[in-house]
Structure formats: structure tokens, C-alpha cells
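Exercise: predict the structure of this protein bound to flavin-adenine dinucleotide.
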Amino acid sequence: MLGAGIMGSCTALMLAEAGFEAVLFDAAPAPLCGASRWNEGRVHLGFVYAADPSLSSARAMIPGGLAFVPLLERLIGRSLAGAGGPEEDVFLVHRRSVVGPEAIGAYYQAVVGLLHEAGLASAFARPLSAGELAAMTCSKEVAAGFAVSERSVDTRWVADRLTEALAAAPRLSLRTGVRILAAAPEESEDGPWRIATDPPEAGGRFDAVVNALWHGRPAVDATAGLPDAAPFTQRYRVALFVRTAPSVSARGAVIAVGPFDDVKDYGGGRFYLSWYPSGLLVETFSDRVADPPLPDPASVIAGTRAGLAPLLPAVAAILDRAEEVSVGGGWVFALGRGSLADPASALHRRDGFGLRRRGRYISVDTGKYSTAPWLAGRIARLLAEGA
Ligand SMILES: Cc1cc2nc3c(=O)[nH]c(=O)nc-3n(C[C@H](O)[C@H](O)[C@H](O)COP(=O)(O)OP(=O)(O)OC[C@H]3O[C@@H](n4cnc5c(N)ncnc54)[C@H](O)[C@@H]3O)c2cc1C
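Solution:
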């Protein structure tokens, strides 16, 4: 298993559960240090992808979103209640949204229809009343608001629980501080496969390989004879992870649709604040990327406040009462290119992720945090069936 983010960790836990000896590699000194620790934790049910009216992205998100909680609870052996997050989120439509309020309302209803078909009878999307909207914002930049049935989880809490599960799992060994350089078949593509590493002695021969390196995946796929056919973009994004006194609370909201972002309240004084323009550190088409240095927290705090607080006054109240502010983030790999301000950009879609394989070498584009446990289940089944 290459990569100890949520994708590699869930897959390794499922393989160990199925009776396989699993080895989990990561360049970082500990598992779950990257994007999987430092993200917003939205359990996607499709509402975000309103600029894809074909509903293809929503359809791609729904199976993973519905499976997320039960699969993760099984793997960490406890309820996700501690990860917080209400069962409802609010989407506020910006006047510069690439999808207008009417079209967005129709899109949300279509997503609700898909969720009902998928068996989630409780799914809903409803326009906010004037009073509800006024309680959240008085900005003229916000044209409308909708409450939808979608939740987010505190990803740092989940990362800690998954790390504990990895340490406790039988038949699973963790090799951290090891960089993966290449993968090549020794006899045939059905195995064994040789993994080359830095330091060299950490690598070896394996019956099967799963590449879950996320931003590091394309470079290793190329060595395995499985280069990416479609153009992609890699973005390094950071956000603010804020702790206040437990009594502070705010209604979470995302500013839709374009280069804006959101506020999340996980309960107990835990908040996520993100303003896309000030959190985007790198945007590249390269398959070889190195983490950028983290910026001075003061500059991210100032940029996030300047962008978000005029739209959502609750942001200023959260920052004014902050006891601890961490800047964290990671890479976002996405097929396609373009700007989020352009309605035609392929970055508004997320429907091309999933598995590709060459014999017993499987490469997985995680797509989203929320699709990882479901994809891990598919990989574990494939390998258990000897495919
Ligand atoms: C700011 C932000 C907000 C986001 N919000 C959401 C959200 O709300 N909902 C959602 O579903 N998704 C969200 N995402 C996307 C989500 O974080 C990712 O899709 C997901 O975490 C990817 O998981 P992963 O395990 O594939 O990658 P990672 O967690 O990045 O794990 C990959 C691992 O591979 C290791 N690695 C890479 N290259 C090498 C190499 N050559 N050798 C050894 N190790 C290597 C890295 O150290 C890393 O630990 C967000 C991302 C960001 C950055």
C-alpha cells in the first residue's frame, strides 16, 4: 500500500481485516499528515457540483458519501459522533456565482431526487427564509441561500482515530519516512511487483501494489507503465483550523459557486475557515510536486478575514475569540484545468476518479476524502477475489 492518507489507510485496514499481510508506506514521519488531516471533511452528497448540470459529478459522489459513515465507523471501531458537524449545511449563492440562484435551486432539487432514489429518504434542500438569511448575512453580494442535508466531519479527529486503528491492526506494518520512487513488474504484470524506495532497503517485492499516493501518484504510475492519459491540475491549498471556547458556535455555510469557500463548525469550539484566493498556494500541471513552505499564519488569517467576514460576520466573531489558530492544508489532485471563476472549467466536475490497473498494480485517484472508504472497499474486494 503506497500512501498513508485516508485512502491508503482505509485500504490497508480492510486488507488486514480480510487476512492479508499489508505494508503501508509513506514519506512522512507519521500516517495521515497531509490533505487527509487538513481538510474540511465535507461528506459529499453532490450539492457542491452545481456547475455540472449533467449530474454526473453528483452521481459519482453519492455512493461514497452514503457509505462514508458506516465504513469509517467500522474501521475505527467507534461512532463518528466525536467528529462533530450538524446534519445540515447552508449554501449561500454569491452574486458572482457561476450558477445563478434559480438554476442552483433546480440543481439541488435534482440532487435530492438522486438521493431519494439511492435510499436516503431524509435528503432535503430548501430555500432559506428572509429571516434565516438575514441572521447569517446582510451582504448585498449574497443573492440567495439554501439549507441542504449534507454534513462535514473534523478531519483531525478522524486522522487521530485512524492512526490508532493502524497501530492496533494485526497483519499491518507501517513503514514511514520512506519515499516511493518506482514500481515495476518482476516477471509479469500479475506479479510480483518490485517497489524502489529511498532509503533503498525499505522497498522489496510484493504480490500486489496499490498506489494511493494522491499528489505523488502520477509520477509512480509512469514508472509502472500506467501514465495518466488525461490532463490534470495539482493545487496546494491551506485553510484555518480554529479553536475557541466550547461555547462559541456559528451556522456553517459555503459561498457558492466559484473561487470563494466556507466556514464549518464541528462543535465544541472547533472551526474550519477557508477563503480560496488566500489559501491557494500552488497551482501546477506537474506530476512531480513538493510541498510548499507554509505561509506566515498572520497573512492567511488576514486574507481569510478580509474575504469571508464581509459575507459572513460570524467569521470575525470566531477569529476574535480564537484561542488557537493552525494553518494546514494539502494537495488537491483533479482531472481537468481552468479557473473556478469560469463556468466551463473542468475543475467544476469530479466524476473521473477511481481505479485504474495493470495486472496486480492498482492506481487509485481518491477523488474526495469522502469517497475514500468506499473506494477502499472496492480495492479490498478486487484483491480478495484474486483479480
Ligand atoms: C483545503 C482542502 C479542503 C478539502 N475539503 C474536502 C472536503 O470537504 N471533502 C472532501 O471529500 N475532500 C476534501 N478535500 C480533498 C481531500 O482532502 C482529498 O481528496 C483526500 O484527503 C485525499 O486522500 P489521499 O489519502 O488520497 O491523499 P493524502 O492524504 O494526501 O495521502 C497521500 C499520502 O501519500 C504520501 N506520499 C505522496 N507521495 C509519496 C511518495 N512518493 N512516497 C511516499 N509517500 C508519498 C503523502 O505523504 C501522503 O501521506 C480537501 C482538500 C484540501 C487540501
